[in-house]
Amino acid sequence: MTTATRAPERTGTTTRTAPPSAWRRLRTAFATVPTGRQVPGTPAAFVLGLTVGAAASAYTVHAGTTMDYGDAMAHLTIARRVTDSMDPGLSQLGTVWLPLPHLLLLPLVQSLFLFRTGLAACILGALCLGASSAALYRITARIGLPPAGRLVALAVLLANPSLLYASTTALTEPVLVAALLLTIAGLAGWAFNRRRLSGGELAVFAGVPAAAGVLTRYEAWALVISGAIFVVIVVLRRGDGVRRALALAASFAFPPLAAIGWWVAYNTATYGNPTEFLTGQYSAAAFTELYIEKGQLTTKGNVGLSAEVLGWAMLETVGLVVLVGAAIGLLLMTARQGLDNRALVVWLAGTSTAFLLVSLVGGQHIMVNEMSLPPGAYNNRYALSAVPWAALLCGYAVSYVVPRRAWKVGRPLAVAVAAVALTAQNVWWVGDPDTRMTVIEEAIDGKVSLADTVAAATWLHEHYDGGGILMDENSDKMAVAPRIGVPLRELYYRASGDVFEDAVAAPEDYARWVLMHREQVSTGGTRSSTDQVTAALADDPMFHVRYRMVFSSGDIGVYRRVTDPTDPPFDGGDIRADTAGAVDAAGSAS
Amino acid sequence: MTRKHMGTPTTRARTAGAVTALTIGLLASLLALGPTAPASADEAAVEATASLASTSSTTVSVPVADGITPTALRGRVVASDLLGGPLRFSVGGRTLKTVAAETGPVFLPVRASDVGDDGAIDLTMTYRPTERCPGGSGPADVALTNLTLVYTGDETAPRTVGTFFPDSSPRIDVSVPADASDDLLAAALTAVASLTARYGDATVVQLSVASRQLPRVGPGQRLIRLEPGTGDTSTDVAVRFGLPTLTLTGNGDGLRTAAQALGSDALTLASGPSSTGLSETLERRTEDLEVSFADLGLQRLTLVGPAEATATVGVAQDVFGGPVDGLTVHAEGTYTAVPDTTDVQLSTYVNGYLVDSQLLDPQADGNTVTIDADVPADVITSDNGIEFRLSSTADVGACEADDDGSVPVEVHLDGGASTVTATRGDGGQDLSAYPQVLGGVLPVALRPTGEDRVDAAIDAAYLVHSLQAAAVAPLDVTLVDADSLVQGSSNGLLVGATPEDADTVGAPLRLDSMRLLDYAEAEFGVGSNQPFAALESVVDGDRHLLLLGTWTADGSAAPALPRALATQAATDGWGTLADDLLVVSPGTDPFSLSSAEVVPQEEVVEERTGFVWWLGAGIAVLLLLLLWQVARTARRDHQVKRLVDAQERADSDARGSVTLAGEEDPGHDDDGHPRA
Fold first, then answer.
1. Which of A298, A308, A335 sits opposite B600 (nearest CB)?
2. What is the pTM of this model?
3. Interchain proximity B604–A303, CB inside 8 Å
């Protein structure tokens, strides 16, 4: 007797089917236009950005280029000296730069290894790139871009070698880009959520990232204004009235304003001047003042020249291919959507670029490249904040450049064209990065200009036997503490407070080692760049009796005390090096 | 004569007096006629230096003007190493003197018979100590400098146009009247160029006004006078104020082509003291991008070992008829058999940069060597030197085959088969782009008028001389209108440029108040609002212009400033000019400067406001698109509204028809629902 197998009856219960594969889930996530808080695909985008950042870090660490920028070493030092200094405390954050990047680096640079190798910056940079990638993805999903557009937008962000390089250094641009994108993602999530989110939710999801931004770079201050305007427009369009609009705008602006308030309070408490960051001797204003006196801040008051200089910086940073795609996207978006809410979200990403233009015209900062007068290479990395905007516009272009009836074939084709174009651009860039990528060009210039100091710092790292080092780390080309690679409490420098002046007055009582310019700095960018140690000691005959020069490279000298019998013996001899690292014995220094 | 025959006292006194007088007279005549005691000895500097840097023997040709008698050559031996051994000086195989090879003066007696048929003394300097090899045993750093010819007598004045120009001349002046017309100035500039092409940079060629008293520098000096005239151009040879003078009289293009002929070899055909119809038209230059070593004057290059030996080929960019940004060196040759125990290396350098190196293979069939090397663009300069260097591990002291197998090594490079190939470039921005960017043609414009115009022409002549000395072929120099040059599209030289000229052509340094970047100010000691003159290289679109201009705060003239620049270029040579600016200010020497070291001037910054129109245009396009989108959206909304309104009216009409009449509504059922 056989038992026939019968098909299962459908009696109101569903049949069991195999769960979808990860790939299918990812494809579904990419195609979903989210209306709630969750945006499927976000974790994947984060992991992608993190992976790309880690790979970039592996490359630059291997190449030894993570600390080519002098500013990168300065940021690492500021972060570490908050806890490791003769005068530790938050006052070590200083006022030259906004504090958040240093606070984010703070836990990482507690490891001397991560500090002196620059790996701390690589870790932070990779995390920022992951956050930027996730936020950008969320924005593209919120504004309804199809998978093709989302993919291209991510590719533009993650295939930009200048941004990738910056993400492996301690420069502040990666943190800024992440903060900008997180803020815009928060605003987009609020604007397109099916549920009307509260002011508190807006403050958390958009206001907090904005607060992080305002404590990172001044470009984010402009985003607070444009973001608040965006909130007002969206609320008014919903028909919720002016009062509601202002209330929600205030909710958004509250965290960044509180952050600004904290920063002003910090300046007041530390320097006695609430606007020390604007007017102090280490401020950007002091920096640009020197250029104004020399007649070299030619972008000030000149809209045409400012636009040309900024445009060139964008060309060499964002890339011609991407800029063309972005221009197409901008025209398409304006023609199709005008200034609806989705378009306004994309325009938010252009806030930092507009701010840079206004800032150049206003003479608030200086940017130098081939188009500037005089030409050179300086501060072009500021244009990196335009990469997210360009990415969004390129994603839009790929999504809508073909007519609706041709989407099925046209969009994949557009993605393919974008991929080929991006690849070609990158190939062209890496063919001669020194001249075609201004961010890399500036890094190389920095490496060359710091070569002597780095050589001296490296030698000191290898031969330091304790006893303290006296140096003016704030002077021109002397921000090399990570290269020295010793605990910062061993250094007598301006950040040490009053003890620095005491050490300069009587170095033999404080420091076994002295690192200084052998001749006073004459081509520094600001008045604060003169070497105070050189000013006090270079022409002091007693200094040269008490100390012997044991290493020199260019105009940088390393001196060791010879008059203290408690100092351990030192047989390093007199060594002179050229910037290429060749070493040969020399006679005793004068 | 015996005492008995001495005569009376009176007779004796007369006799003594006569003998004394005769003796004095004889002595006087001897003094006057004696061949060993010349009345005076003059010296003339010789523009030549003998160097043994790459060989053991070298010969320098010392020209001797007709009519003078050479008596000695004076110079200074400079030996940087304590070489030891003798240094031998000879002429035509006759040893003049052998001295120790060490730094110090040397005096070499010569005689008239040492002058060859070419009118020169070929002085050979040889360094060959016993421990050195006959074929040369490495560079001997010995040079004979400050060479001077000691002579007596006066130069035989030339009597014909054909013999007017000597083989060598220390100085040639071209003079024009103080009120010279443009015809004369054009001819004068052409004369300066053609004479410089003839004699090179060793001869001073200058333009001056006729009233100027000229210095006398020795045999071979000449004066060319240009005078206005009608009809065909005539020439006349005479001696004026002790200076052989050739006068050209004419006008228009005839005078200019006659001036052009002054540099021609065919001039020797003019056999009379005067002539008419003298003319030369320059042939069009070729623009071949490949030249052989033979084209450059080297039929063969020889390097002789066993130790280091070098041979050099000079390649000016101008030989290619224009600027280049790439060079490829191809050399072919043969070498002697190399012992297996010896490594012989042949290296090629261009401007000191190594471009090729190879070991000569002892096992190779045919013992031929081929060099193919590309020269990086950033190594190439206006005037390039290709150096072939032969090195070996052979024993330096051995010159004959011995148990170690050390033998002299020779490499011969075939000048006909060896070539230099170039790729055309745009010349770049700097002064070093000249003269090759000119392509053999130099239009010159003078902005000043009146009395200052001749002064400007003199400045231009210095620059023409400097450019021609750096060129490999005669430049076709013409005088053009200043406005035409400024507004036009051709290359050229503008002397006396005004601030408006500098603005029009977009010069890197405007003729206005100038400041230098801090470090440049400190280095050059100028800046702020001091007067200055500048010679600058301008790239205006596709063309290259040279501008010589002056700026003073009160607009006053400062002729000494541009003259200082012009004479610097002429004296030091165009090849010494770097960057794109040569600047001078009162109290400073002329200095080279990059325009990037100048604080951006107001005019330059103002010109860069134009980009705002592009920004504005972009914003305008976006605004127009926005307006179009708004209008389209409004129209669509209006259409939708009309459709909705129409639908609503239709619906209400349908409901109303059933209610009022009770008649069957064919469009709706009894419940009012639309019928299917």
1. A298
2. 0.72
3. no
